[in-house]
Amino acid sequence: MIVKICGIKDLAAMDAALEAGADMVGLVFFPASPRHVTQAAAAELAGRARGKAKVVALSVDADDKLIDAIEASIAPDLHQLHGSETMARVSELRARTGKHVMKAIPVASASDLAPLAAYEAVADWILFDAKAPKDATRPGGHGQTFDWSLLKNIKRTKPVMLSGGIHPSNVAQAIAQVSPDAVDVSSGVESAPGVKDREKIFAFVRNARNAVMERAS
């Protein structure tokens, strides 16, 4: 089970994620998000994580200029595309960067899963997230879960990461119900928007690991 802590903005949060044993750490490059980081801050954070956890760069419908800037500043291990990127754009960015690409698919109903096979053909990872409210200014789950049972019978050909409203208290349930390859958390380990809570980070990682061990026993 891969555990990802996303939306890290400062060294204290990064250190907490690394000490807790996170496998991936996410940096957000989207000004509308309270978790947005500058290129300079991102470079320092990525440097702290290098060799300890995989660095994931989250962007939303980024143009080539931003993607190139992200590559230059942090050289991420993986790009997470969280906007309305087409299959062609996913493929293009994968070729442009030479890095693995994760495509987020927002889910509210079964019909939202229709593009899955097409995205699996061009992406290395699929991330299932809750669909944002209609009046939202940014994508993502906004701390809300979606109906995980929608994923019960889908055919998977690529690794799956589950996100959207997951927190220390429900991560075990998420793992039991969906059996994802990875779980992703951002607001679920925060004390305020963009402010990570050290104890919640440790609890999330611990509970995710314990859930996997219980399933194996």
How would you describe this structure in keywords?
single chain; 217 residues; alpha/beta; two-stranded antiparallel sheet; 7 helices; 10 strands
Structural summary, described in words:
There is one protein chain. By secondary structure, this protein is of the alpha/beta class. Helix content is 35%, strand content 21%. The protein has helices at residues 11-20, 39-49, 64-74, 87-97, 116-120, 171-178, 198-216; strands at residues 2-5, 24-29, 54-59, 78-81, 100-107, 125-130, 160-162, 182-185, 190-192, 195-196. It has a single domain (2-216), classed as TIM Barrel (Alpha-Beta Barrel). The strands form 2 sheets. Strands 1-2-3-4-5-6-7-8 form an 8-stranded parallel barrel, surrounded by 6 helices. A two-stranded antiparallel ribbon has the order 9-10. It is globular. The model has no long low-confidence stretch (mean pLDDT 94). It is built from 7 helices and 10 strands. Helix 6 runs parallel beside helix 7.
Measured by DSSP, the beta-strand proportion falls in: 15-25%
CATH homologous superfamily title = Aldolase class I
Question: Quick one: biggest sheet?
Answer: 8 strands, parallel, barrel
Mean pLDDT: 94
The stretches of 5 or more residues where confidence is low (pLDDT under 50) are none
The count of helical stretches stands at 7
Structural class: alpha/beta
For the record, give the distance between the C-alpha atoms at the N and C termini, rounded to a whole number: 15 Å
Q: Kindly state the percentage of residues in helix.
A: 25-40%
Name the helix and strand elements from N-terminus to C-terminus, one letter apiece.
EHEHEHEHEHEEHEEEH
